[in-house]
Every structure is written in structure tokens, then in C-alpha cells.
Design a protein that fits this description.
Distance between the termini: 38 Å
CATH superfamily of the largest domain: P-loop containing nucleotide triphosphate hydrolases
CATH architecture of the largest domain: 3-Layer(aba) Sandwich
Order of helices and strands: EEEHEEEHHHEHEHEEHHEEEEEEEEEE
Number of helices: 8
């Protein structure tokens, strides 16, 4: 069931939603962004809890933005589970089925099928209050899936769980979503979670979408500085474009001149932000490498599988992440190098 949001707008006294995106049948799209950016409001507009001021929502080729929530056939999973504490697991899962007119053996078979799907076999008679947070969220997922919804909507479903449980449950959500080939909209502020679970990601800021793409596109080819900084650690240098040299774009900054990958759409003299990732940086001693910055070591953390260094030059902080153990002394000067192919040039945005 494909989903399209076309020019959806909703105005509040101090905030405005203005979003458009589409997702193919059976795929999962994540709305990713900081708190207050409009992710949950957008999800509630899709569900029908909030009516848009304008625009259209098309589900499976049919416009649904004028329909009440119950006619949109959406399965909903909330951050706080929203389970009935006075009902056992089976009755919670069956609640929506009874509302849809299901009865008897049909309900029992469906509940048993769903408990197997979410790996809670034998939990039928368990009380909700006896379950862990992860188990409760599995019950909430089973309840949302019970009536065979046309689309699944998940609002920060893992945020109340610890890190280990989040990883386990997100893998299960992805497994179930792919098995059912169920079109899904997933809301989170967690970059790692979004990257692990999504077919596509829509990065949101201030009620609008900054960029939509695959995890790889969002991380390796961000279109704005906000996207680059939100989806991972970045090093940023303010510079201006000088021109083209040897197949690269040459820029000038207070740290000297640097080469970056193709920026042919940029014009000479244009102010830009040069961005490179900590894991694409390295420490060097010689002069042979391009793009070198001398900086003072501020901290050096050995993390087992990597070493994270914080350095400073002319008041600007840089982070270098190395895959091997490196020992540095605070206060010493080291040389950072980064390949032109790993540099991203982003236009400076103006308010």
C-alpha cells in the first residue's frame, strides 16, 4: 500500500507543518529529527487525529485525508504502549478485533498467530503489569497488527527502553515489517535507530523535510549543514570557493586551502561549509597528504574498537576517530589529514 503526502500544511500560532513525501508499497520510511520538529504531528495527520489545513494524503491510490481515523485502517504503536492494565495479553491483542466484529475461534487463532510473530508464545494469560517494557511493546505491536491494517504507524516506540532492548526490538520490528510487506511510517529522534530500520529516511527540521533518501544517501551526501550535523559527528570549516583544480573544487579558509570533491554547482567567491566525518580523518606526520590542519590535542579516548581524539585549532574543535589504538598527550600538536573525496561542500544558508 503506497503512501503519498502532497503539500500537507498545518498552521499553529508559533509553528507550521509543511511536508511532502511518498513511500512505496511495503517499504518503511522514518521521520527523523530533533524534538519539536513536527515528526509526531505529521504522524497524527496521517492517522487522522489531526486534520491538515491543506494538501492531500493518498493511501494505495485513494485519497484518505477526509476520512475519519477508523476508516484509514492504520495500525498504531505509541511510545507509552497504551495497553489496558486490567486486561491480560490476549484480551489486549483481541480488543481491536472485537471492535471490528471478530468472534470466538477466529480471534483465538489470530491472537496465537500474532504472539508467535512477536515471539511471545504462551503469554496469552499473562497480566500486562507483570511484563517488562520490551514485552509490553511487543504486545502493543501485536495489537496494532491484529486487524491487518493497510499501514503501520510507530511513534518513538523504543524510546522508553534501554539500549540493549532497543536493538533487539528494532530488529524484530524490521523483521516483522519485511515479512508482512507492510508500508510503515516510523518516528524517531535516534539516528542509529533510523539507519538500522529504514528503507528511506526523511530528516525534519522546523516542520519541514530537509532531505529524503536512503541511509547511505543521508549520511554520505547530506544536502544541508543541518542534515550533515544531525545524522553524525562532523567537522566543519567555513570557507569560500576559489574555483576548480585537478578535478576538485578548491576552497580557502582560515586554516589554508583545501580540495574537495566536485562542487561544480558552486560559484567562485561563494561562502560554503566544508564538512568531513571524524572516521574519514587521520593523523599524519609528513607533508605528502592533501588537506592538512595542525591542531592541539585536547583529549584522547581509547574506546576498545577505536580511538576518539578531540583537537583544537584557532578556536575550532575537530574530532578524529581512528580504528586502531593511538596514544596522544594532551597539549601536543598533531596534524589532521582528510581526503578531498571525503569532503562535502554545502552552501551557507541564510535565515
Amino acid at each position: 500500500m503506497s503512501l503519498t503526502l502532497k503539500n500537507i500544511k498545518k498552521s499553529y500560532p508559533d509553528f507550521e507543518i509543511d511536508v511532502s513525501f511518498d513511500i512505496e508499497n511495503g517499504k518503511l520510511i522514518t521521520l527523523l529529527g530533533p524534538s519539536g520538529c513536527g515528526k509526531t504531528t505529521t504522524l497524527h495527520i496521517i492517522a487522522g487525529f489531526i486534520g491538515p489545513d491543506s494538501g492531500s494524503i493518498i493511501l494505495g491510490g485513494t485519497r484518505v485525508d477526509m476520512l475519519p481515523p477508523y476508516k484509514r485502517e492504520a495500525g498504531l504503536v505509541f511510545q507509552d504502549y497504551a495497553l489496558f492494565p486490567n486486561m491480560n495479553v490476549a484480551r489486549n491483542i483481541a480488543f481491536g478485533l472485537r471492535m471490528h466484529g471478530w468472534t470466538g475461534d477466529r480471534i483465538e487463532r489470530r491472537v496465537e498467530e500474532l504472539l508467535d510473530l512477536v515471539h511471545l508464545e504462551g503469554f496469552e494469560r499473562r497480566s500486562i503489569t507483570s511484563l517488562s517494557g520490551g514485552e509490553q511493546q511487543r504486545v502493543a505491536l501485536a495489537r496494532a497488527l491484529a486487524p491487518n491494517p493497510r499501514i503501520l504507524l510507530l511513534d518513538e516506540p523504543l524510546s522508553a527502553l534501554d539500549a540493549k532492548l532497543r536493538k533487539e526490538l528494532r530488529a524484530d520490528i524490521r523483521r516483522i515489517q519485511k515479512k508482512l510487506a507492510l508500508t510503515t511510517v516510523y518516528v524517531t529522534h535516534d539516528q542509529e535507530e533510523a539507519f538500522a530500520i529504514s528503507d528511506r529516511i526523511a530528516v525534519m527540521k522546523n516542520g519541514s523535510i530537509e532531505q529524503t533518501g536512503t541511509s547511505q544517501e543521508i549520511y554520505n551526501n547530506p544536502k544541508t549543514l543541518f542534515v550533515a550535523e544531525f545524522v553524525g559527528l562532523t567537522n566543519t570549516i567555513e570557507a569560500r570557493v576559489l574555483g576548480r583544480r585537478g578535478g576538485f573544487t578548491e576552497v580557502e579558509s582560515e586554516f589554508g586551502r583545501f580540495l574537495a570533491r566536485d562542487g561544480s554547482e558552486l560559484s567562485a567567491g561563494q561562502k560554503i561549509s566544508l564538512v568531513f566525518r571524524p572516521e574519514r580523518s587521520r593523523l599524519v606526520r609528513g607533508e605528502a597528504d592533501a588537506n592538512i590542519i595542525e591542531a592541539e590535542v585536547k583529549s584522547c579516548e581509547y574506546l576498545g574498537d577505536s580511538t576518539l581524539l578531540e583537537l583544537e585549532a584557532k578556536g575550532t574543535r575537530f574530532t578524529v576517530k581512528l580504528s586502531q589504538a593511538v596514544f596522544c598527550t594532551t597539549g601536543e600538536t598533531r596534524r589532521i589529514s582528510f581526503s578531498p573525496e571525503d569532503c562535502i561542500l554545502l552552501p551557507v544558508s541564510h535565515p
